[in-house]
Amino acid sequence: QVDHLGEAYDKWVHQPIVGKEGPRFFANDLCEFLTLTKCWVIPMVWLPVKSFVVSISFRRGLTPPHLAMTVAGGILLWTLLEYSLHRFLFHMKTTTYWANTLHYLLHGCHHKHPMDALRLVFPPLAIVILSVTV
After folding, report:
1. Nearby residues of 107 by Cβ (< 8 Å), 6 or more positions away
2. Tens of pLDDT along 33-76?
3. Contact residues for 92 (Cβ-Cβ < 8 A; gap 6+)
4. Which residues are CB-contacts of 94 (< 8 A; sequence separation ≥ 6)?
5. CB-side exposure of 82: number of CA atoms within 13 Å?
6. Residue 16: which of 112, 119, 117 has the closest Cα?
7. CA quadruple 131, 98, 20, 11: dihedral sign
């Protein structure tokens, strides 16, 4: 329901509501559940995936020093990518219906409800769905 705010959205989204619970995004309980993620889920999901990819690279002949440099380069690249997304995309000024709505869903909710511990990280299932559809 942020569409009607227009140019006032940026000011509104940066006035936090302090409380442990955030807003409900979906009326459907399953869809709502899929938007909530505890922080410990991220390493639990992605560390096995990363370990699998590293093991495949090792089996295909990558030497341990080359593998270590590749992993370090990947960490550096991911850090720079995540910083850039956060700095330039998630903090851009929006004024239109779709831009305000998309910004709120991706990052604005974090500013409006900073104490909502279940929406601090992007849900892994959403990443899988986006990866498969793109």
Report:
1. 86, 90, 91
2. 988 999 999 999 999 999 999 999 999 999 999 999 999 999 99
3. 103
4. 9, 10, 100, 102, 103
5. 8
6. 112
7. positive
Instruction: Give the count of alpha carbons within 13 A of 61, CB side only.
Output: 0
Q: Evaluate whether 36 touches 124 at the Cβ level (below 8 Å).
A: no
- Classify residue 68: in a domain, yes or no: no
CA 8 to CA 4: how far, in whole Å?
9
Name the domain count of the chain. Answer: 1
Residues 95 and 7 sit within 8 Å (Cβ to Cβ):
yes
Nearest CA among 94, 120, 87, 119 for reference residue 11: 94
Tokens for 29? Answer: 């309980």
Residue 5, domain extent: 1-15+77-133
pTM: 0.74
Find tokens 């995309």 and name the residue: 89
Structure letter (DSSP) for residue 6: G
